[in-house]
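Feature request disguised as a bug: please show the residue count (489) next to Metal-dependent carboxypeptidase in the output. Example input:
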Amino acid sequence: MTAFEELMAFQRETSALAQIAGRLGWDQETVMPRGAAQQRGEEMAAIEAVLHARRSDPRVAELLERAEPECEVSAAHLREIRRAYDRATKVPADLAKTIARVTSEAQGKWAQARADEDVAAFLPVLEEVVSLKREEGAALAQGGDIYDAMVEDYEPHTTGAQIAEIFDAMRPRLVALRAAVLDRPAPKAVEGSFDERKQMQLSHKLAVAFGYDLSRGRVDKAVHPFSSGSGADVRITTRTSESDPFNCIYSTIHEVGHAAYEQGIHPDFALTPLGRGVSMGVHESQSRIYENQLGRSRAFTRWLFGEMTETFGDFGIADADEFYAAVNRVHNGYIRTEADEVQYNLHIMLRFDLERALMTGDLQVSDLEAAWNDRFEADFGYPVNKPSNGCLQDVHWSVGLFGYFPTYSLGNVYAGCLHEALRGAVPDLDAQLEAGDTTRATGWLRENLQRHGGLYAPRDVIRRASGQEPGPEPLLRYLEKKFGSLYGL
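Example output, currently without the count:
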């Protein structure tokens, strides 16, 4: 074999092992018995030790030195392997193993603390996670900004300062839109009791409607919905609430967006550095455009109203227009994943500022709950009523995902750009969505973005697909037009 072929064979085995580690995480979130948490932590630590050893193996450096790219794809492979190797060799193996063990255990402690509404029970292990992630960040940054090093894991070539600049540009118009909308009478909400078994049946139907291939995936339930895997095994989870069917419906569509990205990557890239989404921001652009610009559109909700009526019978909403207003109802709430499009990014900005302060040491873990509650009341105008609606609501920090939260809003920004281009490319989109047909829309996304996997850098793939430099203006125009119309502004 050539050096490049040998390197790719080694990388393929490493990627396969990483998929196994991911499957352990899926199992932990879905069907693992609660009493297995400590043992699972040891299992995760063991496989992380193997992965870290492979990712930092000196043979990788030697092969990178000799490997010659023959085309754009092989050059991208080498670029991504070199980037991963450089990061892996900066983190001591013992530290990587410890982080895997502690975060696996912390996830279970977070879930229990959340169920018990007991912040104090979670803070000791969160303190340990934050300390370990600071140590990892310092190793990666090598004298640079620790938080930037964290962000690099999820959104390459992006810094905390660049994110802050985008958020500063968005915040005034979002705050103004929120105030104007909430000053208007709220539309009727969907209320009642919705059989959770029927919700899951509708969930599966929606997954298929948005192009999810169930021969290479499955839909399960979890406390916090997520997507897992790539290539031929991409799984999603959703959740149900007897009083809120939208929780299940839009969690499913959102996660299908993630899964469709992974399933849509060119099969030649499977188990290679290019065989996964290029960044979490680009990943989120897919889940958000599926969920919001498509799934919450007036056209698609007209079809969904019929499906809801067929599934649940008369549920108190008179017609498709009233249903569209209910789906897009702007209202006070605590939960990020349940937030409307107007307020969602304000939830992300709160988390971005807090986690950035945790990584720099400007905020101590012991002060996190108070800082969260103060910031939430300042931003939203009412106090947090319980920890599960506050700093315990998200799993991310328990598993060490610092730098992840801002990619949700970057995904919204990217989705705004993609949506404008999609509307131009598919002028009869609304007629198709009204029939419950997403194939032209999802096909355009697959062809112009998803199939590339990690071939291009995050902003490059958005620029190529949308024909414009990524920025918040298209998203803000979309939000102001949509909610201005809905609320008569």
